[in-house]
Amino acid sequence: MRAMQLSATNGPGSLELRDIETPSPGPGEVLIDVAYAGVTFPELLQSRGQYQMRPELPYTVGSEVSGFVRELGEGVTGLSVGDRVVGVANIGAYAESILVPAASVLPLPDAVSLSAGAGMPMNLLTADFALRVRGRLEPGQTVLIHGAAGGLGSALVQVAGAFGAEVVAVVSTEEKAETVRSLGASHVVFADGFKDAVKDLFPDGVDLVADPVGGERFTDSLRTLKTFGTLLVLGFTAGSIPEVKVNRLLLGNISVAGVGWGAALAGRPDMVVTQWETLWPHLSSGALDPAIHTVLPLERAPEALELIDSRSVRGKVVLEVRGEAGRADTNDHQG
């Protein structure tokens, strides 16, 4: 089978299209024929050796897919060969087939296309964990979202809206502003001067700030919180990791909460399924429908990562692997 493998950590150009053997599922595993693979920011970091998880080289990159169940390992129940699914794994998504632990294989509503499905698992589950679990979001609260037009940011906008929040989206361009408005953002402000713009909208501040960007805007984000508000730390796409003077937290009666969805999965095998069940009504209704920036063929995966790096993406970048047909020929198992 075809797979995009990382052979060195010199950036996206280190990805190479190779022919490798199609794996077979072990106990508790599911083999999925990949229709589409989502492209995420951690994969850009992995290509440079800057991510905390560093598998032995070479390996197949990618963490989320949509496709069809091809084969079930021993002990797997609740799934059938041919089911339309999405899956989450540490590696292996940029390939024609992938092994995924059964607990991380999720049904896809009939109303959701496979291309959209590939853009859902990582971002929607992270957004749900951030807002509902770590932020304890309640209907009617206000949520400020940085990087709101990106893959994770746009998922945060939609999940917050689905849960009944009033969303303030922070973007850098008018084109991105149009994107987040189409996703349901109640208000849009620009990154330059966002603190004052938010204070004009909400003099008492907002309940939650969801920040996947970090960097210099962190302190001003704290200043936009109302009493008892919380800043959710989701990542550092700006490149620098900010520091907080804890007296700000004490004097303002505000909080900073880390959001490490992947780390939280350890020891919680049922968490992904429980989250997906919570999101299911919103998936089925179309309320959670990722904005797709572009769909590129598998062999253009390096270009997809360069797009992520350019900060120009509005929504999700997706790789087409087998496409909507999705299924392999029965004699394709050997590679």
Short account of what is shown:
With 335 residues, this protein is of the alpha/beta class. It folds into two domains: 2-120 and 291-320, Medium-chain alcohol dehydrogenases, catalytic domain (Quinone Oxidoreductase, Chain A, domain 1, Alpha-Beta Complex); 123-263, NAD(P)-binding Rossmann-like Domain (Rossmann fold, 3-Layer(aba) Sandwich), CATH 3.40.50.720. It is built from eleven helices and 16 strands.
Describe what you observe in this structure.
With 335 residues, this protein is of the alpha/beta class. It has 2 domains: 2-120 and 291-320, Medium-chain alcohol dehydrogenases, catalytic domain (Quinone Oxidoreductase, Chain A, domain 1), CATH 3.90.180; 123-263, Rossmann fold, CATH 3.40.50.720. 29% of the residues lie in helices and 26% in strands. The protein has 11 helices and 16 strands. It has helices at 41-47, 114-117, 121-134, 151-162, 174-182, 194-201, 218-223, 246-252, 261-265, 271-285, 301-310; strands at 2-6, 15-19, 29-38, 59-60, 64-72, 84-88, 97-101, 105-107, 142-145, 166-171, 187-190, 206-211, 225-233, 255-258, 292-297, 316-320. The strands form 3 sheets. Strands 3, 5, 6, 7, 8, 15 and 16 form a 7-stranded mixed sheet that branches. The chain has a 6-stranded parallel sheet with strand order 11-10-9-12-13-14, sandwiched between helices. Strand 15 (292-297), helix 11 (301-310) and strand 16 form a beta-alpha-beta unit. Helix 3 (121-134) crosses helix 4 (151-162). It is globular and about 60 Å long. The mean pLDDT is 93.
